Amino acid sequence: MFAYIVRRVAYAIPILIGVNLLTFYLFFVVNSPDDMARLHLGVKRVTPEAIDKWKVERGYDKPLLYNEAVSGSAKLTHTIFFEKSVKLFAFDFGHSDDGRDISHDIQQRMKPSLAIAIPTLLVGLLINITFAMLMAFFRGTYVDVSGVILCVVLMSISAMFYIIGGQFLLGKLLRLMPISGYDTGLDAFKFLVLPVVIGAVSGIGAGSRMYRSFFLEEANKDFVRTARAKGLKESLVLFRHVLKNAMIPIVTGVVVVLPMLFLGSLLLESFFAIPGLGSYTIDAINRQDFAIVRAMVFLGSVLYILGLILVDMAYTVVDPRVRLS
Amino acid sequence: MIMPVILWTDALVFLLVAVVLSFVLYARSKPHLRTPWRHVLGSRLASASIVILLVYVVIGLLDSLHYRAALEDNGAGEEVHYGVEVLSVLDYLLEPLHTRTEKTYSSPFATHLYTRETIQHPDGSQTREYPRLIWGGRHLADPETDFARDIRVRVATAGLQALLLTGLLLVLLGVWLARRSRHSLGHAIRSILAGRTRIPLRVILLTLGVLALLFCLALNLSTAYHVFGTDKVGQDVFYQTLKSIRTGLVIGTLTTLVMLPFAILMGILAGYARGWIDDLIQYIYTTLNSIPGVLLIAAAILMLQVYVSNHPEKFETALERADIRLLFLCIILGITSWTGLCRLLRGESLKLRESEYIKAAVSLGVSHASVIGKHILPNVMHIVLITVVLDFSGLVLAEAVLSYVGVGVDPTMNSWGNMINSARLEMAREPVVWWSLLSAFLFMFTLVLAANLFSDAVRDAFDPRLRQR
Description:
The complex is a heterodimer.
Chain A: H1 2-29, H2 33-41, H3 48-58, H4 74-77, H5 80-85, H6 102-137, H7 142-155, H8 159-173, H9 189-202, H10 204-219, H11 222-229, H12 234-257, H13 266-271, H14 277-287, H15 290-318
Helix pairs in contact in A: 1-15, 2-3, 6-7, 6-9, 6-10, 6-12, 7-10, 8-9, 10-12, 11-12, 12-15
Chain B: E1 2-5, H1 8-29, H2 31-42, H3 44-62, E2 66-70, E3 82-88, H4 89-93, H5 95-99, E4 117-120, E5 126-129, H6 143-181, H7 185-193, H8 201-221, H9 237-273, H10 275-290, H11 293-310, H12 318-352, H13 356-363, H14 368-405, H15 416-427, H16 435-462, H17 464-468
Antiparallel strand pairs in B: 1-2, 2-3, 4-5
Helix pairs in contact in B: 1-9, 2-16, 3-8, 3-9, 3-16, 6-7, 6-8, 9-10, 9-12, 9-14, 9-16, 10-12, 11-12, 12-14, 14-15, 14-16, 15-16
């Protein structure tokens, strides 16, 4: 098991190098730092001095890959590639284009992101499993058919409509909770209810339908038929045999997204003005802050790979038949 | 005088149409492809959604024929100058909607503006009141008394027209069926109405009837009123949402067209060649997959913005600039979404290369290229097809989210994402401006729902695992 994890982590390194090279290419080769400076300072009527000043302030004035001007190992380290890309491997994200410490920002903003993402995941999971079990229990009847149709209808509605509609209905018309905002500590609760409810509801369509197919897959297997033939009640069959086995794909599906929860939800956070990592990313994109986007790309890939490793480990825990080698 | 303009996406759209049409012709001649399609057409929900999708496609295609109209001749008449505005055939058909702009917001079927204005009277006094619209209900002498009657007349006319149109369609379908089944016309019409046909023609007719009613209503009402109101700058919202159809369809289909060659080639190659080629391809798609999609799209679009703002001379009109951004968005979405299909194809061809008929072909000395082309490719096409239709609705939905994040289509382009984005602020107004959101919702929801129902039917018909059950 341990050797396997070590190998998987080692396998992750070339992937991260690939991600790093790709972002470096996109951000520094396709468009030179001069282009970025011009975009920030306005294309017309910008002096070369202003561009140089902008670049020096942000450390973009060095050569890309190889610095002729200095000696020794500094030839390689005093370059944009080393300072902006290689340092990411040490989780040193540097400063954003307007001079803020990115690592500090990320630590600050992780908590609100998790405060939304974890309850949304749990509430959604509970609703989806219950709904899917209900459809599986009544499979082939009108309850099942209308449930599936409801799922397809819910799936066909854009997440934006759920958010705008939910804010309007619950926040503005019924005045049940504040429309947006955030607070620290326990006061955050009243701000979290609406995004969590909307986040969970918008996932019902796709989630329940998928879980239903997991349940039906198990319900058609031989051991379930045997259990039924023994005279076990349908509800017992469903809970004891079907649910337990269908939990394998459900749990692994959840585990793989767990690390990504840190990144938060782009839409929910920015609509509800929650100072998490999702809204941080959106703000960075809108302000065209390349340093933050670069940092988030790297962080995102690290978390994605972490999710893949976790899911392999989760398989051995929930399914004893799987052995890692 | 007009000058045809072929935008990049137009060319690709028509290429796509050609590909689809040739596939249809090909599939008609092959019994193993005809059977599952017959299965799809046999499903009531699927055939109704095909009709709806086709209507969307026709609108999208009309909107893909672009031209620039000649400016008014000043009499000298040597060189013809063309306007900078690129129009489409749809714009031409919808000219009344396109040109009749109001001053600002007006609600659906309104005859007066949504906001009060100070009006100077001839005697010098001033009052705050809602002014009449320039176009909406301008034929009414007195809106308060005439409005209800006018609407009743128009709705009744539309109903009659739709009834006639549906009757005509019934006869046409009957003639077609009678010719195919060599029965009399009366027999054919009776079997359509009784729902005894193999393709559910009754459901198709019903869908067409509903669409005909909506079409006639739009024809009668939208020429005199703004049926979905007007937006902040007074443009007709109905026109905007019709124009958005093309954007949605282009994103949903061109993305697939762009990624398909890569995904198929790489997937089959990885599974068939194995060894270091397999490792390399797996490495490429794991790397691409591990970058969060939105961030990769954002990074690429930011880079495009830098490029466009530094090279303004390459784009003659605003629409060309918007178009190149749309194309670029499709390419980037394609890059982020080909990995799933590639992995599926790799797995399937790994399995296929161990099968006996392929081993036999290889040992008979058939070249690798023709093994891939003749034996593997046809046997993975069902996976390709299922993925393509399943992806479509997701891509249409993704457009809205990306436009909100600010990395979607150009803000000047008509798209549902941009409409929703502006509706976000309108919903916070007092009093609420809700019609933009509603019309974007209705049109987008119908398209995505139809696509979802269609893709379910396609999956059920083509997936061999599902077919056995």
